[in-house]
Specification:
The complex is a heterodimer of chains A (266) and B (257). In chain A, 77% of the residues lie in helices and 0% in strands. Chain A is globular and about 75 Å long. Chain A has a single domain, classed as Orthogonal Bundle (MetI-like fold), CATH 1.10.3720. Chain A has twelve helices and no strands. The mean pLDDT of chain B is 88. Chain B has 257 residues and is mostly helical. Chain B folds into two domains: 41 residues, no CATH class; 199 residues, MetI-like fold (Orthogonal Bundle). The two termini of chain B are 34 Å apart. The chains are: A mainly alpha (266), B mainly alpha (257).
Amino acid sequence: MAETGRLRLPAARPLGLPLRPVTALRIAIIVAVVVIWEAVSASGWLYRDVVPSLVAIGKALYATLSDPTFYFHLGTTAYEIGIAMVIGGLSGLAVGILLGGSKFMSRAYEAYLYYLGPCPKIIFFPIMIMWFGVGPGSKVAMGAISCFFPVALNVAGGMREIDKVLIRVGKSFRANTWQMVTKIYLPAMRHPVINGARLGLGVALIGTLLAETKLSNRGIGFLVIQAYSIFNMPQMYALLIILFVIAIGANTLIGRVGGLDDIKRS
Amino acid sequence: MTAAAALAKNRYFPTAIGISSFVAFIALVELLIRVGVINRFIVPMPSDVIAAFPRVIVEEHVLQRFLLTAGEAFSASILVTIFGVAGGVLLYRYHLLRLATETWVAAVAAAPLVLMYPLYLVIFGRSALTIVMMGFTAGLAPIVLKTLEGLLATRRVLINVGKSFNLTSSQQFWKILFPAALPTIFVGLRLGLIFALINIVGVEFLINFGGLGQLINELAERYDLAGTYAAICFVILVSICVFILMERLERWLRPVD
């Protein structure tokens, strides 16, 4: 079935070769990229500043990180993504449990989620503006919609994988629905839930930031599009570097906290 | 077995319930808008959205727009397939290169690359090339990783059969490795092409250029509510058709267990 979020990323694994040639090759690749970049920057083959010098990017990175207004915009984006994760994540969790816990519900409704999941969510942005206005509400809504689908589908899949014995144990103890969810379902499907949260965070980040680039006056997405509109290329590169570091770092952190790397290695 | 239990086990009953509850939801929205509970200037009546379909298709040249988006997606697909599969083969062939760069490729796959679209606008201009390159960038890493995974998963016995026939390295690749890895490569192609399509439509919408994505943006800017909803429904339908097609192709390629 169609899905976009199940790309298994390789975890760091014990290397077959001694470390030194690998490190040497990595350094050589980085040096080559730096040399080529600087050569292209100095050559003037491309329009001026399209490929700025790495020194200029470094300076812009430093200037951005030492500017207090950057942290205001970062805080705005983090707030929007946080609220989006709570709304999208919790509703995804509830719907996932509902679909995964009942074969009938799954057959009746899961196909809708499954095929809507990979659609480009940014096309809903005009609707979100009409419903929630041009402020942070529409960005939160974009993030929540983006986050909802991977969480719901992962949780539904995780529910179906739960060992039937555990469910029978819960029922034999006459656990009520809340106890079943908190004592059996959630602990037993911790990994699919965390994997869903990881995927959800990635797409919530994209949804929120893209919405900020389209229509906003605050947030990191706004800073990126502002750097584009005033043609401040070093700052745009600096912002993209910061964004990628944050996104990849958050992705890795959730994976580590949830013990996903341990599963892959075992 | 009771009648209710028999119905629940019926193959088509849950699907029928799903469709009928969707239709009931649409009818409820229509009713709530008509009685004034939902503001019709925020949510158009579903009947208006359905009525807007022919208008949007004829007046907004949906076929041309669809062909433009399809052309961009096709160009990105060709690029992403050539470079993605070649990248995976390269990493498979050169063990040291794989060890040095595989985690980097994985990091790129996890990065929100679509946020680079303002950079691409500067480099390639506000043109179809920006959209194609954005689709290409988004779809590349999954194909590289899945191609590598497929080649690495080739059963040792198959490789040994090739060696026992004294196949050249080219024959070994085309007759053993590539066919064995093809199902996994196609999983990567499906993921990569879906990423590419999502990004193409998204960037069309964001930069207001191109086919179906631009159509939504234009209708929204004109405050044509029914038209905007109809265009969004159209894009969703097209996306679903593409996903189903890719899924069928993947199933066709997957070996029978």
